């Protein structure tokens, strides 16, 4: 698989371009490499951050930020979906729609988790 070096990546970015792969195998390889090469670092980073949380409110800032990132991801996927459909790439557009729909599901779950960070008010017992 041919990979762009940092200089080529930088030069392409200057003209608004980016590197594209020619085969499905190359795309799968680069996605897998990105996921697995960064696995240990990402795991350690997020576990270290989570270990500093001491109460339910401590989860809230990260969940609110994650919800915002997911919302941006949904907008990005939706824009790509519409552009793919405009260009006649219907299979790609359908895959992007599924990804956007799944992102809404994750965003909803994160929203529900963020709401659960707020401690429930104590309800006085009545006789």
Provide structural commentary.
It is a single chain. The model has no long low-confidence stretch (mean pLDDT 88). The chain has helices at residues 6-14, 24-37, 39-51, 60-86, 90-115. Helix 4 packs antiparallel against helix 5 (90-115). The chain is built from 5 helices and no strands. The radius of gyration is 21 Å and the shape is extended. 70% of the residues lie in helices and 0% in strands. By secondary structure, it is mainly α.
How far is the first residue's CA from the last residue's CA? 73 Å
Largest beta-sheet characterization = none
Note the beta-strand portion: under 5%
H/E topology pattern: HHHHH
Quickly count the helices: 5
Low-confidence stretches: none
Radius of gyration: 21 Å
User: Can you give the helix content as a percent range?
Assistant: over 70%
Return the average pLDDT rounded to an integer. 88
Structure in a nutshell:
With 127 residues, the chain is an all-alpha fold. It has helices at residues 6-14, 24-37, 39-51, 60-86, 90-115. The longest helix has 27 residues, at 60-86.
Task: Compile the SSE list and pairings.
Elements: H1 6-14, H2 24-37, H3 39-51, H4 60-86, H5 90-115
Essential attributes:
mainly alpha; 127 residues; extended
């Amino acid at each position: 698989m041919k990979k762009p070096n940092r200089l080529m990546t930088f030069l392409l970015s200057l003209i608004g371009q980016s590197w594209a792969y020619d085969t499905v195998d190359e795309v799968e390889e680069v996605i897998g490499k990105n996921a697995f090469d960064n696995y240990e670092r990402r795991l350690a980073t997020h576990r270290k951050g989570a270990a500093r949380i001491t109460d339910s409110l401590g989860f809230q800032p990260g969940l609110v930020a994650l919800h915002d990132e997911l919302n941006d991801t949904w907008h990005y996927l939706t824009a790509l979906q519409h552009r793919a459909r405009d260009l006649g790439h219907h299979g790609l557009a359908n895959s992007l729609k599924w990804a956007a729909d799944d992102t809404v599901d994750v965003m909803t779950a994160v929203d529900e988790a963020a709401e659960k960070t707020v401690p429930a008010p104590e309800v006085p017992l009545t006789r």
